[in-house]
Amino acid sequence: MRIVIAEDDALLREGLALLLRAESLDVVAATGSPEEFLAAVDAHEPDVAIVDVRMPPTHTDEGIVAAVEARRRRPGLAVLVLSAYVEQAFATDLLAGGADRLGYLLKERVGRVAEFLDALHRVAGGGTAIDPEVVGQLMARTRPGGELERLSPRERDVLALMAEGLGNAAIAERLFITEGAVHKHIRSIFAKLDLAPDDRADRRVAAVLRYLDGTPRR
Predict the structure, then answer these.
(1) How many Å apart are CA 98 and CA 101, to the nearest integer?
(2) 4-aspartylphosphate (modified residue): where (predicted)?
(3) What digits encode the pLDDT tens for the residues 113-161?
(4) E strand or H helix at 164, and its extent?
(5) Residues contacting residue 30 through CB under 8 Å, at least 6 positions apart
(6) What is the CATH number of domain 142-213?
(7) Where are the domains of the chain?
(8) Cα 21 to Cα 15: distance, rounded to the nearest angstrom
(9) In DSSP terms, which residues pair with 102 in a beta bridge?
(10) Domain 2-131 bears CATH identifier 3.65.10.10
């Protein structure tokens, strides 16, 4: 696994590089600006990019913009975005083009090495990894009367774990229910959110997007 890091905080950048190299992962570049990051993507053709949301010069959304551009230049690039705070717009923008090979973690998760590495490998393997704290805070901001109000408490639990990127087997294990029960809950979620089987979009991704957004859609 070839990895490029984009993080303007030198201490965190070097700490990430040391952590990943200690796990025998190939960090091919550790950069401090969007321009350096994109140049490294072009030069090294990495498998995964770990990108800070807020980077110079304005420290707003430069990391997200750079990540989108990196995926345009290298289709299939896995991207794990790191943020110090829960930022709803960035979480939903990240998934807007599809959830494959994408992750969104709070920086504090890096200190929980096993969880951070699990998220990294999940994203590199083609999956999605959304920080549980991000999911929890966004859920707390869900607007009353929206589509999610249609869901039962158990269905909301299942959808929250879907948003973290867990598959059916992992959801079943976490909730102590059968995979068959998970499948039934997901079918019910799709029905209540009006996600028809013939929708062109991936219904699982669409359901997660509505969860993260928390607003009614037509």
Answers:
(1) 9
(2) 52
(3) 988 999 899 899 988 888 777 776 665 655 555 667 788 989 988 988 8
(4) helix 153-164
(5) 4, 5, 7, 13, 14, 16, 17
(6) 1.10.10.10
(7) 2-131, 142-213
(8) 10
(9) 79, 128
(10) no
